[in-house]
Amino acid sequence: MPERLRLVDLVNARLDAFLVDRSTHLATIADELDVFIDASRDLLRGGKRFRALFAYWGWHAVAGTVRPDDPLAEMDDHAELDAVIALAAALEIFHAAALVHDDIMDNSDTRRGMPSMHRRFQADHAHREWVGSAASYGTSSALMLGDLLLGWSDELLAEGLSIVADRSAARRARREFHVMRTEVTMGQYLDILEEVAWRDAPEEDLLPRAHRVVTYKSAKYSIEAPLALGGLMAGGTPDQVDALRAFGLPLGVAFQLRDDLLGVFGDPGVTGKPAGDDLREGKRTVLIALARRALPASAVRLIDELLGDPGLSEHQIATLQATIRDSGAVETVETMIARSVREATTAIEDAPLSRAARSELIGLADLVTRRAH
């Protein structure tokens, strides 16, 4: 839709301006630091801007009093439009930081069709024939890039919040950002914990534990928190923010369940990741938990023996994919996605939110759960 493209253009322009400003600062420290700006630009150039879109429409859901056919038209001069664009851009930088760290922990080679950041730095070390370990340099440099992006996301958020006239609303949004940051960090830990400690859990707990990872690693920070942040920044009432959360959390779960399916069955040419990447990384997802519940013991042993082996061959990947399909887990996950989307859309049908925002959020629900990458 045209307004989505216009919004994405505004966010991209804000990101570009922010990086130009930070590049000037880094240049005063050392010329060699331009590698961090180049890496940040390349990483931020990709992505679908979902978090930015949900932040804006969370804000519009509360603040929007514009024409439904062109939601941005009368906001071009809005005093707080710059604030929500800064918030949206801050969320994209935060997401980029999370991806850098996630790729290190998962030992991923690619991201968005490009080398992951630690592989990028590693390749630079090898190309220049520097001393020491290229792998160690790559990991260390990428860690610093992720930390830098985390700090920058906070700086950009602060710039946006400084514009908000309602200082109570600004403080509430700041608190929400802090909660989001803690939850996604702990969700990431729960994810890596499940990869190594799943044998310690009773069999009946594996599915709820996998769902817990979905909730805190992805669902809340991908959709619920951006919506709530936008609504809080606009001064939303408890009823309005609660409605945004009631829409955002189940949709966030559906979003991550789709991502889990793509991590096993996605087309590498579309996803930018190798086929079956989650299988090599040993992700103990809802999909895997459901498959294990439905399969005979011999097939469960096969999954447990192969899952998490970074050297899986194409044949072994295909075997695991077929085993998971045969379990019926894919159909179950698709049912869960559809049910979560219905729950989300029902939550805002009669909610005290702007008509334009409700319409756009329903469209976004379809977009984020039917995607191929």
From TrEMBL:
- Tell me the enzyme class: transferase
Q: Which InterPro entries match?
A: Isoprenoid_synthase_dom_sf, Polyprenyl_synt, Polyprenyl_synt_CS
Output the superkingdom of the source species.
Bacteria
Entry cofactors: Mg(2+)
Which Pfam families does the annotation name? Answer: polyprenyl_synt (PF00348)
Could you list this entry's UniProt keywords, alphabetically sorted.
Magnesium, Metal-binding, Transferase
Report whether Metal-binding shows up as a keyword of the record: yes
Q: EC number(s) on record? A: 2.5.1.1, 2.5.1.10, 2.5.1.29
GO-annotated biological processes: isoprenoid biosynthetic process
GO function terms (MF aspect)? (2E,6E)-farnesyl diphosphate synthase activity; dimethylallyltranstransferase activity; geranylgeranyl diphosphate synthase activity; metal ion binding
Q: Which PANTHER family match?
A: GERANYLGERANYL PYROPHOSPHATE SYNTHASE, SHORT CHAIN ISOPRENYL DIPHOSPHATE SYNTHASE
Family to which this protein belongs: Belongs to the FPP/GGPP synthase family.
Protein name per its UniProtKB record = Geranylgeranyl diphosphate synthase type I
